[in-house]
Structures are given as structure tokens and as C-alpha cells.
């Protein structure tokens, strides 16, 4: 496993460093399986395609073909999702909404090859024009977004932060009226207020052109992404599982921006206020120790204890925890089983993230009532 991580670290920016010693013993088929599990095939390919000059343990023609087939699929999917994202943004803007694309295709622009990131669905942050800075906490604004989406699909069911609409050109779309959330009420209030303020300020968003000149989308700025992406990583860690793809997104985000000391101090304070200090330390440790991100690019100091715990979870579960067989393997995941699994997961994480884990059952009860109120059944 350490050899795979070393090779992944090399592949992130292969032109800036020498070929690692691990290539002498890597099984290229197994590396591909690891990369598929973590949804980092396109990233690892940036290193694999430079291995043709190896004197020993060179990837075979069959190995190279296997990689190229998968990379081609990723690039093709990216082109489709890019075009669809532009279409979705345009449609919402024409209906009188402001938009901002979260994660996904905005993150991909920070990669050396924007078509190498494994794409997912489209997460679009939508709010009505004419609402003030604190529109995230304006239930009338939230209800307007939900009502519009239910007009597209009467069966759509809203949750606290997003609602699904029918797939556009076969690409799933999540419409967010809140970017993310925290279980602990105090942390959640501060998080929502901070993210709303960042999006509302001058320079809080930017227009970017997607590859192939398919059109423009709006994406959030650096500070928003630091806080939002760490919250996203923590939520996946606590609720289902998180893989290396999410950390690679964060790696390229930090590497793309020269963070000044005053900006770093501001972010540190906000991360503490929003309950994200520990996950930030964990991510910082993995990025710096395992993936070679320069210390100068880190926002918070590395925390080895939390970093190793996060790494264990990622290796065991893979992307979104799809490969985690430590609990209830082979059992049909009914709602009851899913709730039991969530409680067991909380118990495993509580010593690392106590406030989120201890508040999670209460948030789940409150969320059940919220869904009843907004979905009518």
C-alpha cells in the first residue's frame, strides 16, 4: 500500500520530481485496482504514462492498454459533464436564480490535466436573486428553490441541504440551497453564516471557462472552498466513507493558491469556530507526509494521530466507503440496518470527532421532522 501512495504522490506532479524507487516492484494491475477503488485512475495515469523508459518492471502493452481504456472513459465522461454543467447553470440563471457550481468540474480545473479527474454528479448551489447576504438561513428563499425543483419533478424529496432534480443528459444533478452542514447546531450556524458571507462578498465567486470552450460556469473562491471541502470530507468520513479523490481535490486547491499569513490566520479561526480544526489537521498530515504537499501550502498544522485514523478509514472503504466490508457484509441495507450502521460508525469515530458524533442522532431526529414539513409526508 505504501508503494501505491508513493506512486500517487509522484503522479500528482511527475515533472517536478524524480521517479520513485517503488516502480521497481509495483504490480501495475494491482495499482490500477487501487486507483479504481480510490477513483484516482486519471491522476495515477499521469505517472504511469512516463514509465515506458524503465529498464526493469516496465508496464506491459496489456497494462498500458488497460489504463488507457479507463482514462479514455474518464475524459469522455468529463466532456459530457462539462457541457451539461454549462447547460444546467444557464437554465437556472434564465429562471431568475444565481448559481455556483460546487466541487466537481470547478475542482478539475486545478488539475494539471482537467480531464483526468474522475467526475461525479453536478452539485449546483442555487439561490433566488434579490435575497440578502444571509439568504442561506432565509426559509422563504430555500422554499422557493425547493418549490421550483419540485415543479421539475413532483416526486423529488428535499433534505436539509439539497434536492435532486431529474438527470440532465443522463448526468445526475443535486441542487443545493445550503452548501453542506454540520450535526452540531452551534457549528452549523457558524458554518452557514460563514459560507453565505464568503459567497456574497466581492470576489467571492468567479466565472471560469471549461475545457473545450463549451462555456462558462461560476465557481466559489479559495476561502469558501477550503472550509466547504473540509466539511464535505468530514461529512463523508462520518456518514459513509471518504476516499483519496476528495483529498486530491483539496491537494490541488491548496497547491493552486499562495496563502498569506493573515489569510491563514483567518481560516484557522473559522475552521475552529465551525468544528473543522481536527479534520483539517488530519488532512494536512496525509497531504504533507503521504502525498508530498509542501508545508508552505498547508492551511493548518498536520496532526499525525488524526491523519493516521483518516488514512485507515480511506484505505479500508475506498471512494464513498463503497468497499468497506468491516460491518454487515452481504446484508441488505434496509433503513433499519442503515441506521444501525450509522450508530456503529458514530461509536467508532466519537473519540476523534465527539461533537459531530454525539449530535448526529439528535440531528437525524430533527432532520426527520424537517423532511416531513418540507415534503408533506
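Q: What amino acid sequence fits the structure above?
A:
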Amino acid at each position: 500500500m505504501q508503494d501505491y501512495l508513493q506512486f500517487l504522490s509522484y503522479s500528482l506532479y511527475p515533472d517536478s520530481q524524480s521517479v520513485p524507487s517503488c516502480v521497481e516492484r509495483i504490480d501495475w494491475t494491482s495499482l490500477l485496482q487501487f486507483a479504481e477503488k480510490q477513483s484516482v485512475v486519471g491522476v495515477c495515469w499521469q505517472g504511469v504514462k512516463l514509465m515506458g523508459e524503465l529498464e526493469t518492471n516496465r508496464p506491459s502493452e496489456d497494462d498500458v492498454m488497460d489504463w488507457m481504456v479507463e482514462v479514455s472513459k474518464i475524459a469522455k465522461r468529463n466532456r459530457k459533464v462539462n457541457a451539461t454543467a454549462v447547460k444546467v447553470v444557464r437554465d437556472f440563471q434564465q429562471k431568475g436564480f444565481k448559481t455556483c457550481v460546487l466541487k466537481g468540474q470547478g475542482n478539475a480545473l486545478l488539475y494539471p490535466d482537467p480531464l483526468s479527474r474522475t467526475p461525479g454528479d453536478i452539485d449546483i448551489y442555487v439561490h433566488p436573486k434579490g435575497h440578502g447576504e444571509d439568504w442561506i438561513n432565509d426559509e422563504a428563499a430555500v422554499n422557493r428553490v425547493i418549490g421550483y425543483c419540485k415543479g421539475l419533478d413532483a416526486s423529488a424529496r428535499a433534505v436539509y441541504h439539497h434536492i435532486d432534480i431529474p438527470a440532465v443528459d443522463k448526468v445526475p444533478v443535486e441542487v443545493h440551497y445550503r452548501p453542506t452542514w454540520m450535526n452540531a447546531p452551534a457549528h452549523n450556524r457558524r458554518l452557514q453564516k460563514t459560507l453565505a458571507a464568503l459567497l456574497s462578498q466581492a470576489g467571492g465567486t468567479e466565472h471560469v471557462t471549461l475545457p473545450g470552450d463549451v462555456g462558462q460556469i461560476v465557481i466559489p473562491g479559495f476561502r469558501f472552498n477550503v472550509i466547504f471541502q473540509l466539511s464535505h470530507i468530514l461529512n463523508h468520513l462520518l456518514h459513509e466513507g471518504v476516499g483519496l479523490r476528495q483529498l486530491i481535490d483539496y491537494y490541488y486547491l491548496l497547491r493552486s493558491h499562495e496563502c498569506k499569513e493573515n489569510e491563514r490566520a483567518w481560516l484557522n479561526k473559522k475552521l475552529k469556530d465551525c468544528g473543522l480544526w481536527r479534520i483539517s489537521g488530519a488532512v494536512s498530515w496525509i497531504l504533507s507526509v503521504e502525498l508530498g504537499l509542501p508545508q508552505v501550502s498547508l492551511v493548518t498544522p498536520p496532526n499525525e494521530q488524526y491523519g493516521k485514523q483518516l488514512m485507515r478509514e480511506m484505505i479500508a472503504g475506498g471512494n464513498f466507503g463503497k468497499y468497506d466490508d468491516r460491518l454487515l457484509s452481504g446484508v441488505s441495507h434496509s433503513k433499519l440496518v442503515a441506521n444501525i450502521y450509522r450508530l456503529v460508525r458514530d461509536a467508532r469515530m466519537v473519540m476523534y470527532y465527539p461533537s459531530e458524533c454525539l449530535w448526529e442522532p439528535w440531528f437525524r431526529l430533527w432532520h426527520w421532522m424537517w423532511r416531513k414539513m418540507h415534503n408533506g409526508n
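Q: And what stands out in the fold?
A: The chain has a mean pLDDT of 90.
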